[in-house]
Amino acid sequence: MNPRIAEFIRGLGQETIRRIAALSDQEPEGILGASDNLDPSRAEGTELDYYHGVVTGAAAPEDLDTLAVPAGTWAVFENSGPFPQALQYLWRDVFTQWFPSNPYQSRPGPEILRTRLSQDGARADAELWIPVERTAV
């Protein structure tokens, strides 16, 4: 996991996270991480915008930021295993195996990650949503 993102999440506080979670009313459910404005190279250390939030049709409280996500086609991937390796392998496999062997490419838009940790934090179930568009054949 990106150490700056982990630090950001720790700084939110449990009350803020509870307030955000209560707004979740659409799929994918629950607290999500959304990375937007990614550098196309995806090189380590490049900047991005990170949101720790939910998908909702409700109006957000004024003290919270929002990220509009336009409709489109999404590829959804799942993985389970030791944390954080399961997340790292998921991202790696999507971009080094799935994209090269399928007629899709990523399109602009946020990449959304839903992670559910085991009670001891040792394992994770992850679901990664990537905005995609079909490539010309």
Automatic annotation (TrEMBL):
Residues 1-133 form the AraC effector-binding domain. InterPro entries: AraC_E-bd, GyrI-like, Reg_factor_effector_dom_sf. It comes from the Bacteria. This is AraC effector-binding domain-containing protein.
